[in-house]
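Annex B. Sample input.
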Amino acid sequence: MDPRQLTAEIIFTVEFYDVDAMELVWHGNYVKYMEKARCALLDKIGYGYSAMKESGYAFPVTGISLKYIRPLRFGDTVRAKAILDEYENCIRIKYEFYDKEGTITTKGTSTQMAFCIKKNESCFACPAVFIDRVEKLLS
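Annex B, continued. Sample output.
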């Protein structure tokens, strides 16, 4: 991994309401976990959802992918890592989920596209306010 990449991590415990009858995390809940890690990363950048809106942009999710390697179970302690992979043309974040032993259990990616609220149109590059904040942290 590029040492200049921005990352954020969260730690959580798998709750009963996140598992199925076999006490495995239901696959759809990984998207919720990704969102929590993504929010931690965006907060670290200083461009969380409130800051996005204040700057006149929304960033709808345009793609999600997940690769399940090992199941997470009820009561597991999980470390979720979000890694900023692209920030100039879109926000692309890679995710890695680890169990308490440090074994990777799941990998994922999300992509978000900038949308100018005032003009009501998609942007094909991220706004300067976001790029500047990322590059300031990378320098």
